[in-house]
Structures are given as structure tokens and as C-alpha cells.
Amino acid sequence: MKCARAYEAFIGTKLRSKQNINPLELANIRIEAISRFPELKAYQPHRGVESAELELFNKVLHNTMLKAGFRIPASHANEATSIPK
């Protein structure tokens, strides 16, 4: 639970000033998180396996984005996600 709170605080600061976010920005948030949180460093992208910690980070990212008002349509996962106007 402590990790989830730390992830939520980190993600919140990254999303706070944004009105929209695209997949590249999300990837950059994940890359920065992997370098910032030691438990996420076990992720090996070439193996395609997510650690439990990275899975938790991704769930917290998704939920924090929803709380902030970002739309996350499943059919548009590769497109920009934005706050509805």
C-alpha cells in the first residue's frame, strides 16, 4: 500500500498541469518512474513480463488518470487521452 501511495503522488505531480496526454508522455512517465522507484527496475521489456510492482504502477496510473478527469477509451489506447471540455 505504501508503494501505491508513492506512485499516486508521483503520477499526480506529472498530471497536475496537463489538459491532455498522449502515449509518448505516458511512456515518459513510466520510464521516469522506473528510474525513480527501485522496485520497478526489475522490469525487463525485452522479456515482455511485467513485475507485480509494475503492474501495480500501471493500475495506479490508470486510476489516477480517471480521477483527474482524463478519458481513457479502450478502443483508442494508442491515441491521445484528454480531459473532456
Describe this structure in words.
Helices cover 52% and strands 5% of the residues. By secondary structure, the protein is mainly alpha-helical. The chain has a single domain, classed as Arc Repressor Mutant, subunit A (Orthogonal Bundle). It has a two-stranded antiparallel sheet. Helix 1 crosses helix 3 (52-67). It is globular and about 35 Å long.
End-to-end Cα distance: 33 Å
Tell me the Rg in angstroms: 13 Å
Query: In total, how many domains does the architecture comprise?
Result: 1
Name the shape in a single word: globular
CATH third-tier fold name: Arc Repressor Mutant, subunit A
Give a short synopsis of this structure.
The chain has 85 residues and is mainly α.
List strands and helices in order, with pairings:
Blueprint: H1 2-15, E1 20-21, H2 23-36, H3 52-67, E2 81-82
Antiparallel strand pairs: 1-2
Helix pairs in contact: 1-3
Keywords for this entry:
mainly alpha; Arc Repressor Mutant, subunit A; 2 strands; 5% strand; disordered C terminus
